[in-house]
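Dear support,

We are seeing what looks like truncated structure output for some complexes. This example has two components. We would appreciate it if you could run it in full and send us the complete token output so we can diff it against ours.
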Amino acid sequence: MGFIPAWGEQNKVRRTGIKTIQSVFWKMKGECRVLSGDRGASFEELATPLLRPLYNFARWLTRDTHEAEDLVQEAFARALKGFSGFQPGTNFRAWMFRIVRNTFLSSRSNVAIHVSVEEEGGEDLLPPDPYTPESILMKAGLQQRIQAAIERLPLAYREALLLCDVEEMRYQEIAALIGVPVGTVMSRISRARKLLRGMLAEDGLRIES
Amino acid sequence: MNCDLWQDKFDAFVDMELSSAETRDFEEHLRGCPACSAEALARQRLKSQTRLAGQRFEPSAEFERRIIPSSAPKRAGWRWMPALVAAAAALLLVLGGLSWRQRTVERQLVSQLVDQHVASMASVNPVDVVSTDAHTVKPWFQGKVPFSVDIPDLHDTQFTLLGGRIEYFQQSPAAQLIFAVRQHRISVFIFREVGETAALGEQTAPIRKAGFQTQSWTEDGIRYFAISDVNAQDVRQLCDLLKRRS
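Here is the complete output from our reference environment:
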């Protein structure tokens, strides 16, 4: 568990000559820090800026603050453990998002992430909205309505849409992250937006040019 | 206007996923087609609104400090503090990770047991050995499960033994006893404790899980798990009888 110490206040980048050791504790003058071998940056340097987006994503997946915190914490622990296997130069951000997602899925064996009807072009049924009382919706602005609508999206559509629109990932990136063909990503995003517009229209809102 | 040609391309267009040739052709079409042009703008607007709406949740300062201690307020002159805080945080992270995994495992085990309970309740033949007599049920399990199944004396209690069955749980045989109390059924699963099943914990009173009252404990390496839709007091009473049996 080394990345925490390196987040000390004097977190200068320390490049090291130790080529073979991927990550070691370095104790010096009462300081601990992680050395990251010859890779460009240490885990903490890479992961710190991702905490907020990862938490946001985790919170959307779990729909619960505490579960999101547990999920991010576990994902960080897993990522740190697997960091030696991470290939420098590859997409660290996508790697972290994939770990959050996999951690989430492994925590819930009953999560239905695959939408069986989608490839057949069946109609999507939305679950009833247990999260947003109508009284809130009445007062809510466009942002709140979109948020409530995203919350109601089936998980497979929700994650694809968030990765595309919020994280601005390419279809190819999302496909690799989720482990489905690019065409499936396209159809999920497309259906997510269709459902979103449908829900907003139900609310009497229309997104117009 | 060949609008049909472009109907499937709007999303890829606003996501900038069209090839440069396709983008050029599409833009050319948009210039000449007010309807598609309006549609493209609406989609673009939905995308940017979704982007804003999607950036909704921020980690609490406390949580951020837990994951990234350097964001905690610093105290001058305590040069060893960061290391200490860091070590504590690292420990927390490990423990937190462990407890999360523990809870995950527990949730999975409970959901399997709930499924088995529900399935046996729905079954036409919920029990393999139908008997209210402990002296019939106990020997029936011999040789079928690698432990002895003791059944409490239910005389003068509100409980009736309905029978037992063999289930497979975590790849090993488990005994399932089914008791009746009024119109309700209580399943008690009994199996050898193997590594992961320790996540079920030790309870002295029922806790509500997945809509059922459940109580679990171990005795000499044997795990007991009681589950029912009846009230907590009745589950607890039966569990106490099981623990007290001779």
